[in-house]
Amino acid sequence: MAGTGKTHLREAGSTLLRVEDLQVEFPAKGGRRVHAVSGVSFDVAPGETVGFVGESGCGKSTVARAVMHLPAPNSGVVNLDDTELGTLSAKRLRETRVAMQLIFQDPMASLNPRRKVKDLVQEGVEIWHRGGDRHALEERTRELLDDVGLDSATVWNRYPHELSGGQCQRVSIARALMMRPSLLICDEILASLDVSVQSQMLNLLKRTRAEHGLAMMFISHDLGVVKNISDRILVMYLGKVAEVLEVDALDRETVHHPYTQLLLASVPRVTGERIKPSVDGAAQDLPSPLNPPSGCRFRTRCPLATDRCAQEEPQLEEKRPGQFIACHHIS
Ligand SMILES: Nc1ncnc2c1ncn2[C@@H]1O[C@H](COP(=O)(O)OP(=O)(O)OP(=O)(O)O)[C@@H](O)[C@H]1O
Description:
By secondary structure, the chain is an alpha/beta fold. It has helices at about 60-70, 90-95, 105-110, 115-130, 135-145, 150-155, 165-175, 195-210, 225-230, 260-265, 280, 305-310; strands at about 15-25, 35-45, 50-55, 75-80, 85, 100-105, 185, 215-220, 230-235, 240-245, 315-320, 325. An 8-stranded mixed β-sheet has the order 6-7-8-3-9-10-12-11, with helices on both faces. Helix 4 (about 115-130) crosses helix 5, helix 4 (about 115-130) packs parallel to helix 7 (about 165-175) and helix 5 (about 135-145) crosses helix 7 (about 165-175).
């Protein structure tokens, strides 16, 4: 089995989203395959925010798309509210997917440049509920635009290119909320924004999730950002889960997976100044997902690695209450 264990999953009835043994491979030249996501399991409780962190290429976006079945994973099970997505007809899948809204990193690219803000926010609802009450729809659009910190009267007839990146991202959030989702999947949505706009957006997301009772998957390569907004964190490395932990465990004097340790060491510490995370610098050492290392995928960069790590894949085990680590050397 390619899994990294499922001991961290909670009782099925208590979760909104339950993902088991997700596997995604992409075809590559010469008949080879990119092992992008290999046996990832996690769950998200109603109203909970789970952060996904790991350096570029570790499979975070692929997990997000596989959860949405955009496209369906090669194998694995995705249950949303006890509905298994893989068993649904194409029509039922499209309907069920509305409850999960995905927001991307580049708001300009994900908003149709030829549509005005009011239409962008309304278009999802128009597709799903044709012939609804136009007045009520416009009211809700105004409300949501104001809610996400845009002056609805000002931006109503504007096009995306007339807005800043932060404003576009706010439109994307309003557009997602319009569909009344139970799960918001945010894929690197702060990465293209200035640091000051990032913190405004984090506050907006926290307020929004409380007001709308939303669960979130929050994806970022920046552990500092993920820590700020998440209840629990999944640390991913080369298509696998290295560690799952409650966010409080990050502040405790506790032992972590050696990869989490590397990420922690690269979180900016100087107030007001961004230090380039050292983990980005180490990215060239990332092995290829075309040919991932045997056993523990982190072993080629791990200071603790031994022969056992090459031969035997570590499974996620609960090392401290609420803290699951996949490492032979952490007890
Ligand atoms: N359509 C595709 N075809 C081939 N390989 C792909 C495809 N999409 C993703 N990959 C590869 O799968 C791996 C995981 O990519 P993914 O985008 O999920 O990572 P990520 O952690 O989200 O990184 P980033 O933050 O850079 O988006 C990478 O090696 C990537 O090159």
